[in-house]
Amino acid sequence: MNRRDLLKSGLAASAVLALTGARLPAAAKQFEIMRTDAEWRQLLSPKAYRVLRHEDTERAFSSPLNDEHRKGVFVCAGCDLPLYSSETKYDSGTGWPSFWKPLPNAIGTKQDNTLFSRRTEVHCRRCGGHLGHVFKDGPKPTGLRYCMNGVAMKFIPA
User: Fold this and answer.
1) Looking at residue 59, which CATH number applies to its domain?
2) Does the annotation mark 147 as catalytic?
3) Strands (E), the chain
């Protein structure tokens, strides 16, 4: 294979990734807490592993956290970083735990162009675990809806 063929192959692969919205898993980036894939598999349940480490989405209305109404804090299932206060949780009717505001310094975001749409992906600031997406159709005072996968979090009652 010559350089020209190699370059063409690389460009073709990049185009496929761009068009399909394929992304690198969170483990490919640098975060405060880094573990090997084998360590994440051992630490997390299979569903949490697929969501947190490979940006999967749990089935709507499947998380017990959707019906959690006690006072407390929702933390990352991967690293226990506090993410959301129960005071900002609300029923969005979507089937996933929803919040109108994260705790300070809890999350990171990036553009998500999968499924031929433009969304904003939300991940844990400390371990990079995929949490869900944020949309601009939430309640006041922020107008935002942080639509989270329940399996990506744990609830700590107050």
Assistant:
1) 2.170.150.20
2) yes
3) 72-76, 82-85, 89-90, 98-99, 107-112, 119-124, 130-135, 145-148, 153-157
